Each structure stands twice: as C-alpha cells, then as structure tokens.
Amino acid sequence: MRQALEGSQAIARAVALCRPGVVAAYPITPQTHIVEGISKLVADGVMDCELVSVESEFSAASVALGAAAAGSRAYTASSSQGIMLMSEVLYNIAGLRVPMVLTCANRAVGAPLSIWNDQQDSMAVRDAGWIQLYCADNQEAVDTTIQAFRIAEATELPVMVCVDGFVLTHTMEPIDLPDQTVVDAFLPPYRFARMLDPARPISLGTLVDPGWFTEARHSHHHALLKALPVIEQIDRDWQAATGRAAGGLLEVIGPADAPTAILCLGSVASTFTEVLEDHPPGDPVKLIKLRAFRPFPAEALRAACVGVKTLIVLERALSPGLGGIVSVEVQATLATVPDAPAVHGFAAGLGGRDMPVELLPDLLAAARAGRPGEFTIADVQLSKLPEEDR
Amino acid sequence: MPPELDQTDLDQAQLDDLRRRQPRFRGLEAGHRACQGCGEALAARLVMESIGPDVVVTNATGCLEVFTTPWPQSAWRVPWMHSLFENSAAIASGVEAALKHQGRDGTKVVALGGDGGTFDIGFQALSGMLERTHDILYVCFDNEAYMNTGIQRSSSTPHAAATTTSPSGKARMGKRHLKKDLLSIIAAHHIPYAASASVAYPADLRRKVRHAIGIKGPTFLLVHSPCPLGWAHDASRTVEIARLAVQTGLFPLIEMERSEVVGVMPIREPRPVTDYLSLQGRFRHLFNEDDPRALEEREHLQALADHTIAKFGLRGDGPDPLDSDGADTVRRGGNSA
C-alpha cells in the first residue's frame, strides 16, 4: 500500500520488516530520524529487537559487529563524522566477513563543518571491503534496505546502503512498503555459519602473519567480486516478489544508442531522469545510474558505454590533489575498451549545494568545452574566493 | 582417554558432552606463546577456569590476543572474538544483546582487555557498557603499561616507573603522573560488583570471578598481572612480586558493591615499598644513591602506599588465614610464622 512517508521513517519501517535482532543507535544529522523511528517502533512493541543506544558511532558499529558475530541480524546507521569515527570498525567488520547492514545518510565531512549532503563520507570508506549500494529515491532506499540483508547473508559481507542526507532522508514521498509476509518469504531467518557458540567454539579475529595475510585479502577481494551476480539476482528476486526492481548493479535510462552519457550515483539520478524527460537536450543523452559502487560493476559499465563518445561522470565527493574518485575509477575501467568514450569528471552538490535542473545543460556545455580526462568542480563560484585561491 | 574410547568412534554430541564435563574446564589451553613468567597468561587461565565452558569471550588487541591466536592456531576452547584495541566492551555489548534476543541468556559474556585497552583507549566503550547495564563481566589484566607494543606508559603505569615513553634521565624520574584510580571511576557507575584481584592470590581471584559471573548485570575485575619483560624482573618471581604489590599497599585488593567498599584483603604487616620496587628494573633509577631525587620518589611512593592503607583500612588486626600473608599459602590457614 502506498503511503506518504519521510525517507527516514520509510527506512526505519523497512528495517523493522527485516526483523533484526539487534539495532545499535547513535544520533547524527541527517541520519538521526532513522534510529529515532526504530526506537519508537521498539517502544510501541512493533519491533522485537534489542535496541542498544550507544555512546558513540564507534561503539554503534562495534555493537552491531558483536551481535552479528553472535548470530543475530544486526543493523546500524550513521553519517559523515560518524562514518569516519566508525571507519576502523568498518574495515574490521568486512575483514572478519561478518554480515550486517548499515545505512549511510550521506553527508559532507568537515572541516569546514557542514551538516548537508554530499557523498564524501561513504567514498572515504570505499576501500573498507563493504558492499556499497546507492539509492536514487526513497522507494529504492526501502527496497535496497530489505535486499541488503539478503545480500549480506548470502555473501557473508556487510552492506552499506547509501541515501543522500536531507535530499532523501527528510523528504516525504509516496512509498510502497511491502507486506510483512512478502518480506518474511524474501528474507527467511538466518543462521551465521561462524556464529559464536559455546557448543562449537571458534576463534574469530586472530593474528595473521605475512604467510596468510595476502591470502585473506585475496579471498576478501574475490568475495566482493563474486557478490556482483548475487546483487543482480537478489534484485531480480525482489522484482519477482514485488513487481519492482531497485536498479541492479546499474541502470541505463534514456536512448540506449545515445552518444553522450552521464554517470551519477544517488538522488541526483532522479533529478536528471526528470530533466531528460521534461527538457530533453537537442542531442540524445542517456543516464547511467550506478547503484553498486562496491563491488564495482566493471563489465556492466563497459556494456553500458558501448557506442558512447562522451561520458560525463558527476560525483558528490572528490579526492583533493587528484580530482574525481568515481571518474578515475570509470576511466580505469574503460581504459582497455576500444573506442572508449572521452571521460569528463565533475564534482557538484558538495556540502548540500543544490543541484538544479540547469546543471545538466551546464555539464553538457562544460564537457564540450573541456578536455577529456579533466576534472572540474562544476558549480564552484570563484568570485567568492580571493584571487590566489581561484 | 581410555583406549576403548577412541575419539574417532565418538559423534560430535558425545565429544561436546565430554568437553563440557571435564573436571576443571580449561577455556585457555597451554601451548600458547606467552613469555616465561607471564602474569597475564596465568591470570587469564585462572579466570577462564572459574567461568567454565558456557561463555563467549571478547578480547581487546594486546599480548593476550596475540600470544593465544597466531593463525591457524588458537589456545581458546571457548568461542572467542577479537576485533580491535578499543572495543572489547562494545563488541561484548553486542554479543550480550544478541544472546538476550535469541533467548540464550544462560551463556555468560566475558570481555577481556589489558590496561591500555581498558584505562585508556577502550575506556569510553567500557563506560558505555557499564552505564547500559549489560550482563557482562569485564576483566582487565593490569600489567601497568603497553607491553604488546614494547613497554610504553599507560594511565595505569605507577608513578615513577620507567617505560620506553616515560624513561628516567637527567630531567625525569620515570612517569611523572599517578596511576589512574580506575576502580573509583568504575564504582561511580554504581554497578553491582567491582573488585581488584591479583594473580598472586589465585583462590581469592577465583572466588571473585565466580561471584562476579553469578551476578546479573555489569561486573568488573581488575587483576594485577606482572610482566617480567616490561617490569624487568626475574621471570621466576612473578607471583612473589605480585604478592609484594599487595603486601606493601601499592595494589589494594578490594571489593565494591554499588560503589560502596564491602571487603578488603587485610595486610598482616605492611612491607616497605622498597621491598617491591627493588626487585624490578623499571624502578632501578629510584635506587641511585647519588641522586637526591631517588630518595624523594621512594618516600613519595611510600606515602602513596600509606595513604591507600589508611583509606581502605587495609591493616589487619592480627593473623588471619585470608590476609595478605595467610591467603594462598602452602599451608591453608596460613598461621605459620
């Protein structure tokens, strides 16, 4: 049944439908409404879970890790500085190959302090060994949250569901929340094979010398690569169960043979989908909505880029001193392809700067004027800066 | 195991049953890689023996974690988990919450850490665990420095002790600051039970572990555990030195319930602190008679011990089988002169 829900409330309800055993909660803007929503569902007796209100994001991730290792379905959520404080634990959870789900309500990372949206936080932990899925709207956020538990449990890897802070978390949208029976059938009770259990004692998290560390890393890397078809299959299963897919590894929107493509992650994909429908540019343009950033869907990306001459990569983060993060990865992925498109990298929408509909024609114009391989912050207002900083 | 009970003939359930019914279950087995005379290894074995098999253990990064689990070996015969340096209390909180949700409440949860992982970097996670009243026993093996990284000072290092980051020299006499009074801070959480114990008094330690593990709610044990390498003492004198720490009043053995002191191990006849200090290389600079600061620091440490003895009323009223001289002696009852 479709109902008007705030993004965070919808995510909280989706988490409840997944019947987690333990939820660790710590507030941070713009994530807070999610754990508030879960807390209220627990208080009202709707959710039967152990809600652990911790004293830091560091402990939030640690509590979820302990709970998942002890065999419970575990969840937490955070943003920005919270993700940074968690980062040591995030690497650890993934390295221990313990399945759990975390929602990252994407927000800029200070300094300067900003509570508003960009994706620097999740990008900063892209190498932690988690699966990262980016959502374009709140229906995708709900569907991806439910899928994330099944992906985590099928792969024994943790999954980070990335939703743009405020843009999605604080926006009311008509949402179709699936019935509990649908979710129960899709996500049956789970038993973690390496669960901490006195009847079958194991040692988890041991010291590994140089004779074994490389093999552990190789195994982890391949576990992520092997997750690619799992992510696709689980989205197909979800479509079979609900009639709705959530974007697989990536989704191409617009004319398949368009010579120009724009690749982006997160809510801006929804903005651009509307722009392309309502104000179609003179030359055909297609949108590549990247949903899985880790594992990186290299094959799917190459297939989506066949026939593309100009590829614009738009991201809400950057690597200072280098430029783009996503654009560099995209360039590397396409480097071996004959007739690879010229890649133009742009960052925009940093620290919550609005990404208006005019951004799309601006990017097309900038790509025409710019050199391939270049990176630019598309919406910087240089007049605000002293001469020497421009 | 008698020959007719060849292990290969047993099914898993029979093996599990045999394992659980051992007369003294050893959660931490021999064969690990601790140094000779390691106080922490001995203390950890004693703690695990008293807890038994139905437990989940979390372990902070540190010597205990490193010397017991060099992959693919492990000395642990209970489910054991190490994550990071500073989150033993937090992962234990998650384990406990999970067991509760699964209705496995009978399984105990024990969090282990050294003084670095407890007094310093894991302090916040520990405080959170206590405040949330998780049903967990937290045991800190206190060897008074970061031994695993090569003997650096922690907030538990005693005043004037030399470590690699608080060395003695012309301008310094070892650590300038006092040992953090962690038990008072723990007590301020008003948890049901917190106590100090020493590896030199195994019967007392076992009793405290059994008491703590039987309590529903958060409990805390601080176990004094000498480190021959870090303290620079003869590896054969670990227990003797740990005993002297108690007998001098430098490491009081106390028990607290809801922040009130409810028991102490009385000291029969307080020994001068120099009896304890002089056996350890970390205090060697305090015995340089050419240095006037040496006497000053020895007097300072004696004053600290005197203060602790007075504060907790540690001085006994005469020989007692459970005082600092009577407890854990060869002749139980300990009334020999």
What would your notes on this structure say?
The complex is a heterodimer of chains A (390) and B (337). By secondary structure, chain A is an alpha/beta fold. Chain A contains twelve helices and 16 strands. In chain A, the strands form three sheets. In chain A, strands 3-2-4-5-7-6-13 form a seven-stranded mixed beta sheet, with helices on both faces. A six-stranded mixed beta sheet of chain A has the order 10-12-11-14-15-16, with helices on both faces. In chain A, strands 1-8 form a two-stranded antiparallel sheet. Chain A starts with a strand and ends in a 13-residue tail after the last strand. Helices cover 34% and strands 12% of the residues of chain B. Strand 9 (203-204) of chain A pairs parallel with strand 2 (80-82) of chain B, so a sheet runs across the interface.
Keyword list:
heterodimer; A: 390 residues; alpha/beta; B: alpha/beta; eight-stranded mixed sheet; 12 helices; 34% helix; globular
Blueprint (SSEs and pairs):
The complex is a heterodimer of chains A (390) and B (337).
Chain A: E1 2-6, H1 7-17, E2 22-25, H2 32-43, E3 50-53, H3 57-69, E4 74-78, H4 80-95, E5 101-106, H5 120-124, E6 131-134, H6 138-155, E7 159-164, E8 172-176, H7 180-186, E9 203-204, H8 210-242, E10 250-253, E11 260-264, H9 268-278, E12 285-290, E13 292-294, H10 298-304, E14 310-315, H11 326-334, E15 342-347, H12 359-369, E16 375-377
Parallel strand pairs in A: 2-3, 2-4, 4-5, 5-7, 6-7, 11-12, 11-14, 14-15, 15-16
Antiparallel strand pairs in A: 1-8, 6-13, 10-12
Helix pairs in contact in A: 1-2, 1-6, 3-4, 6-8
Chain B: H1 12-20, H2 39-51, E1 55-59, H3 63-68, E2 80-82, H4 88-102, E3 108-114, H5 115-120, H6 123-131, E4 137-142, H7 182-187, E5 193-198, H8 202-213, E6 219-224, H9 228-231, H10 238-247, E7 254-257, E8 260-264, H11 273-277, H12 292-312
Parallel strand pairs in B: 1-2, 1-3, 3-4, 4-6, 5-6
Antiparallel strand pairs in B: 5-7, 7-8
Helix pairs in contact in B: 2-8, 4-6
